[in-house]
Design brief:
Number of helices: 10
Number of strands: 12
Strand content: 5-15%
Order of helices and strands: HHEEHEEEHEHEEHEEHHEHEH
């Protein structure tokens, strides 16, 4: 038995208890006992009515527990090969061409930006306490999966409850705050709630190696499906990018590009961009039609392709259920076609690590299983008769 599994067996009950505390996972068919109402205040971030005079349980070590649970499953950053859930093989470039060989840790930030209240039952900011698993809303499932992914790999995580903007749709806030977070982190990965990692054991650094996203790349985004209405308004009529999954790298060039992109509806640089302030597809149409053809010092994606990376739709967009679009999401899934399935994906993210640990603890370790298959008994016997005295 691998030493890593032995170290982790004791963590199974710890994780189960923690998940019950954090997510209200009790949904069994037995009669529910009366549970104390969970409330939040400034002094005790997690506390129940019956614990008013007790020290509330600490969640400070939850990230350590998550990382330990997934450790045996994590794909090494330099692993030459990865097989996706549908059996597709992905191969890294030669080892001497890899961009990353070590984890960037907290220098990477997984970013959620949202303007919604998210305070109803089933939401992460539910004002009556923590949302129960069986009522968890689709947006909350997506957000939780992002937090989980960040903790698995030791990355930073931020959730920005963005303000409203008078002259543009809420979607533009992702551009504005990605730019701001790039002042603090080397890499910012902005994700819509319905964009998720189907294989959370794959580190971002491995994907950067696979897509050959080196230090020159300012921003990488997936292509949309090649069909109407997913083409830009330029004379090139090229397939749009999809801004639901953005990999952005810090630097002077990135600040300039994101500034111009954020100011696009104000037409500071791009004439005719004002309409994308409120018109579908908002910020991604603005980038697709204007920014990628004129950024920095008059660069174009055609003349300077090293700065903007278009990721294949098959790998970083869509889901298997919309495979007819050519986008199945081998490495990053985007559930724009089935937003209600984010709960299923989040459940898979959690159980992908917990299931092998439970199997190992319950059925591979001595103490729980008694194997009588080699016995040949008669009648209602259970064990061999004891020898006569």
């Amino acid at each position: 038995m691998p030493q890593a599994w032995r170290r982790l067996i004791f963590l199974v009950p710890v994780l189960v208890i923690t998940l019950i505390l954090v997510s209200g996972l009790y949904t069994g068919s037995l009669p529910k006992p009366r549970m104390p109402k969970v409330v939040f205040d400034d002094h005790h971030p997690f506390r129940s009515e019956c614990q008013a005079n007790q020290t509330p349980p600490s969640l400070d070590n939850l990230p350590d527990i998550i990382r330990a649970l997934w450790q045996p499953l994590i794909l090494p950053i330099t692993a030459p090969r990865f097989v996706t859930l549908d059996g597709t093989e992905k191969l890294l470039p030669p080892q001497n061409e890899l961009v990353h060989t070590k984890s960037m840790g907290k220098k990477i930030c997984i970013l959620d930006v949202d303007t919604r209240d998210l305070a109803g039952e089933g939401s992460i900011f539910y004002n009556e306490g923590v949302p129960p698993w069986d009522k968890l809303g689709s947006p909350s499932a997506g957000f939780l999966s992002h937090y989980l992914y960040a903790q698995i790999h030791g990355y930073s995580y931020k959730f920005i409850r963005a303000p409203q903007y008078e002259d543009r749709a809420p979607h533009w806030s992702k551009v504005i705050f990605t730019k701001e977070l790039l002042k603090e982190y080397d890499i910012v990965v902005m994700m819509d709630y319905d964009a998720m990692f189907p294989s959370p054991e794959v580190p971002l650094e491995w994907m950067l190696n696979y897509w050959k996203i080196d230090k020159d790349v300012i921003v990488a985004m997936a292509e949309d499906p090649a069909g109407e209405p997913n083409f830009d308004d330029s004379e090139k009529h090229r397939v749009n990018i999809n801004s639901g999954f953005i990999i952005a790298q810090a630097g002077e060039k990135s600040q300039r590009l994101f500034k111009d992109w954020a100011e696009c509806p104000s037409e500071v640089r791009y004439k005719g961009c004002a309409k994308w302030g409120q018109t579908l597809f908002h910020e991604q149409a603005a980038f697709s039609t204007h920014v990628r053809y004129d950024f920095l010092d008059g660069y174009s994606i055609d003349t300077h392709p090293q700065y903007i990376r278009m990721l294949p739709c098959q790998e970083a967009n869509g889901i298997p259920e919309v495979s007819g679009s050519g986008c199945v999401g081998h490495l990053v899934r985007h559930y724009w076609g089935r937003k209600g399935l984010t709960n299923r994906e989040f459940g898979h993210n959690v159980m992908a690590a917990l299931t092998p640990l439970l199997v190992q603890a319950a059925y591979k370790e001595p103490g729980h299983v008694e194997d009588l298959r080699s016995k040949v008994l008669k009648g209602a016997e259970v064990l061999d008769k004891p020898p006569a005295r």
